[in-house]
Specification:
It contains eight helices and four strands, in the order βαβαββαααααα. The chain is an alpha+beta fold and about 210 residues long. The radius of gyration is 17 Å and the shape is globular.
């Protein structure tokens, strides 16, 4: 039995970057989907009243980014030295900001703010086009994949659903996305029913 258990709702949401990292690194885990009916009871046991929750043996973690950083250290995708780690943290924090904007749109402003969001999206994505164009290593930082790359991947996949043409002006991002999706473990996962059957968000908006 695997010692890793990931508790989350039956959606991609904030947990998908965790799943992508685990899949790509060939790590087994138990995915525990908490239904809306189960959530009030489960919520009482959650330290901050939120999911995801990770059980790693006798260690229990809450908060998405704490979970991601823990797994990144465990799986060796947190850079090769302290300098790399600091730069990866910087990239990741910026992506967390973008995820926050996306979640706000989906859950609070979809009907009133989508047009403005899409108008600002080229500026937001353009930053990563520039970053990736300037790094010949093929990833956000250096020559090795990091946990920040998995968050960028999930965001690009989400935004392609939101706006199919969002990468038309960003050839480097497009190449990056294609290359990430072609990684053997990720390719298998992204083509699986387990991935395809999960909605991105709980409210049906995407």
């Amino acid at each position: 039995m695997t010692s890793l258990k990931l508790w989350y709702f039956p959606t991609k949401g904030r947990a998908e970057a965790v799943r992508l990292m685990l899949k790509d690194q060939g790590t087994d885990w138990e995915d525990i989907a908490v239904t809306g009916q189960e959530w009030p009871t489960v919520k009482q046991s959650c330290l901050f009243g939120q999911l995801p929750k990770l059980e790693d043996g006798n260690l229990t973690l809450y908060q998405t980014n704490a979970i991601r950083r823990h797994l990144a250290r465990k799986l060796g995708v947190y850079g090769q030295n302290e300098r790399d780690a600091a730069l990866i943290d910087m990239m990741d924090d910026s992506l967390v900001d973008l995820l926050g904007k996306y979640m706000k749109l989906i859950y609070q402003e979809y009907d009133t703010g989508k047009e403005k969001y899409l108008q600002e999206l080229p500026e937001n994505l353009g930053r990563y086009e520039k970053i990736l164009s300037g790094n010949k290593g093929g990833f956000l930082i250096g020559t090795q994949i990091s946990f920040a790359d998995y968050l960028l991947l999930s965001l690009l996949l989400y935004h392609q659903v939101l706006c199919q043409s969002c990468l038309d002006s960003f050839p480097t991002l497009r190449t990056y996305l294609d290359r990430m999706c072609a990684r053997p473990n990720l390719q298998t996962y992204l083509q699986s029913d387990a991935y395809k059957s999960k909605p991105i968000n709980a409210n049906g908006k995407q």
